[in-house]
Amino acid sequence: MSASLEAKVVGLCRELVRLDSLSGREQRVAELVSKEMRELGYDHVETDELGNVVGILGAQTTQASAAFDAHMDVVPVSDAPRWTHEPFSAELAEGCVWGRGTTDVKGSLAALVVGLGLLPRGVLQGTVVVSASVGEEAVEGLALASVLTRHPVKRVVICEPTGLRLGWATGAGPVYAWRRPAWQPTPRGLSEASMPCTS
Ligand SMILES: [Zn+2]
Prior knowledge:
Number of strands: 9
Helix content: 25-40%
Number of helices: 4
Mean pLDDT: 85
Distance between the termini: 23 Å
CATH class: Alpha Beta
CATH topology: Aminopeptidase
Radius of gyration: 16 Å
Bound molecules: zinc ion
Number of domains: 1
Oligomer: single chain
Strand content: 15-25%
CATH architecture: 3-Layer(aba) Sandwich
């Protein structure tokens, strides 16, 4: 990753983390994601009735090649006295971004929105749907199902933290069953890349 790209991803990640977005209160994050997508030149950007932000790269078709999803909400802060950095400070320290939701999944959301948005359009084959969904921490998959109903795709990539290893999702219809890999996320393992360190 180039230094400028890394700075842009980390910068957006920190902006996202500073916005407290408990399930049902994702509006400010949604507005920021939507603004970022428009500035990056996504071909279509919409916010649906649930509050999901959907960016389209490529022509709008009846079936896109792939969808990438990262949720915008976070769980409440627990064990506040044990946090070594203020949960919504998005402090950059020890080569990491610290804060609630950094690993799960605002770091992924920032990388997804920026990384795909900056790809030269000729590189992408077909149409790609980028979904920033609401309420995943409350009802996993329900908001994404709404997105996929309106934007059918062949494949879905869920950008949950898995220690940089791939897990496979299986299922039929709009709701996908996530088969968790037999490993735990290793947030510290991400620190060398100046990526998020804690959720
Ligand atoms: Zn998550």
